[in-house]
Amino acid sequence: MQMESNIVYGLTAALYGEIHIDKGAVVEDNFDQYLMLRMNEMPEVRTHFALSGGGKWGGVGEPGLPPIAPAVANAIFAATGKRIRSLPIRNHDLV
Known about the structure:
Blueprint: H1 2-15, E1 21-22, E2 25-26, H2 68-80
Antiparallel strand pairs: 1-2
């Protein structure tokens, strides 16, 4: 579940993550004002763990977050030929 929740937060950051400042104050100061990925927007996620070198388990939750934005940007490039070089992705014209 930790891996899957990191994927949710990674997709949220890549697609929607944006904070606005107005007169020196953060506008989105709580989750009711910050756009989060909704359940109907979340792709199906299947998590499988495998040992890779050595016989001890390491952290398996945190590694899910960092590669999400680059993976989505690469998938967009593969599908459309358009490079995403800034986030959030929703600010780009992909039509």
